[in-house]
Amino acid sequence: MGKSKELSVDLKKRIIDLNKSGKSLGAISKQLQVPRATVQTIIRKYKVHGTVVSLPRSGRKRKLSHAAERRLVRMVKSQPRITKKQVCKDLEADGTQVSVSTVKRVLHRHGLRGCRARKKPLLQKRHLKTRLKFAADHMDKDKTFWRKVLWSDETKIELFGHNTQQYVWRRKGEAFNPRNTMPTVKHGGGSIMLWGCFAASGTGSLQKVNGIMKKEDYLQILQENLKPSARRLGLGRSWVFQQDNDPKHTSKVVKEWLNQARIKVLEWPSQSPDLNPIENMWTVLKKRVHARKPSHLAELHQFCQEEWSNIRPEACQELVDGYQKRLVAVKMDKGHVTKY
What we know:
This is Paired domain-containing protein. Residues 70-140 form the Transposase Tc1-like domain. Pfam families: DDE_3, HTH_SB, HTH_Tnp_Tc3_2. GO terms for molecular function: DNA binding. By secondary structure, the chain is of the alpha/beta class. The protein folds into three domains: 9-49; 66-110; 125-333, Nucleotidyltransferase, domain 5 (2-Layer Sandwich), CATH 3.30.420. It has 14 helices and five strands. It has helices at residues 9-20, 25-32, 36-49, 66-78, 84-93, 100-109, 125-138, 143-146, 215-232, 252-260, 278-291, 297-310, 313-321, 323-332; strands at residues 149-158, 191-199, 202-209, 240-241, 264-265. The protein has a five-stranded mixed beta sheet, sandwiched between helices. The protein is elongated and about 105 Å long. The mean pLDDT is 88.
């Protein structure tokens, strides 16, 4: 037998009005063609709740008790990489059998959702210690100091954005429609390696690296681009150069040249790309370049140069002026990776 259709609110109100006018249950049932038992139920509910609107129903009893839900949440928080199927197996071993959908709904109610793990550098205890020391040593530096820093790094940009994701609107079964796929080629269709620098006053040089960079290549890039960039950006005489601890950067020949050129180098904690704001600049650059869809490597290099020059100085200054927030985040996270 199918489920009976619920009476409309207007019909329920007519039943209540007729009841208030003194009509009997049988008379109301006959006049409105509604079963007597239904009329009686509606009137009884109205007397208790004062309304004819359907009240929220309790629904089916939950599979997991509140205590079991709390245990489930604790399990996932302590083991964030555990799968829903493994959770089901662990609960079943304790005598509670639930489906994967139930586990997912419970976790969603508690604000836990499955997300891709962010790829971050592996930090050992010595890294945590040096990161915390760097944050403590520079916490009292104001915006004036950070505006005098010339930030630098290298990055690789692929022609077709091998790591780029693209979302599309499609129906089920249309996943492999050419309009809903993103063409790829092996190794991203080729790539270029770039060295760049910037400061709060704008972007500096952007230099293409030919082949595998050696310490001699890095030294030549610094000799040709470092001081000209600092002069062009108006850093004055007391500026500071930032570089990470890549072996090429800390090689003896590079250190000797930096000392001879009287360039002050910012002491840098290893495994700390989140402390270098140029990483954010690379993200901006790659998005802009890939939006222009370069068709070959020469065009990729050309677009990189153009888009690097088009980044507004105001954006650079805003990024650098908020640097202290990174140091605070390192301290709050006890040296671990931050959202930056």
